[in-house]
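FW: tagging you since you asked about this chain on Friday. Here's the raw sequence from the shared folder, copied in full. Didn't touch anything.
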Amino acid sequence: MRLYLASTSPARLTLLRSAGIEPVTLAPDVDENAVAAEAARVQGAPLTPHHVVELLARAKAEAVSRSGNGADPIDGLVLGGDSVFVIDGVVYGKPHTPAKARERWHNQRGRTGQLYSGHWLIEQVNGVPGRAVGAVAVADVTFADDIDDEELDAYIATGEPLFVAGAFTIDSLGAPFITRISGDPSTVVGLSLPTLRRLVSGLGYSWPSLWNRGGAL
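HL: got it, structure written out here
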């Protein structure tokens, strides 16, 4: 069974590879801000973090499902994902600028927030989409309280925190600044492997059927 990853996230790709899966990566053409804004307009109220990540994960999976894989029809499972970080009830996506990343870190060091990761999985046979399932995983993240400004400036200068939800990583340079994870650690990377396994099973497929890398065969 082939897995198609509707994401260009290096972290998600590395995570899947470590679990024995070499996905086909396809970039979804989705304006995340526009999709979320329209959903909030229709709802008449701000979206919850749970709703945001599930909505955007679904939008990405459906975009790739529609656009396909060039001349080759998609035949397998299409996975979309999205993540946001929440602290004090405020939803934070990617900061994009050093100033915003620094502001967020000054607010979150020594504290605990929640990382929400949404998943949407579409079964597609010979280019024709069929059943779909989705789920959201949540993990608590606690940051060290003794991070000094020099360390923060050095971390931000690497550029790593600018393009990840919450301005931090658990699987790279940001890991030493995190003291505790409550929940599935892969959720914090942006893709909960246990959640994905349950979704795959829910569509009637076995998790080992996705293994296609040498170490898992």
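FW: The domain at 3-216 is CATH 3.90.950.10 (Maf protein).
HL: agreed, and The first strand starts at residue 3 and ends at 5.
FW: great, closing this out.
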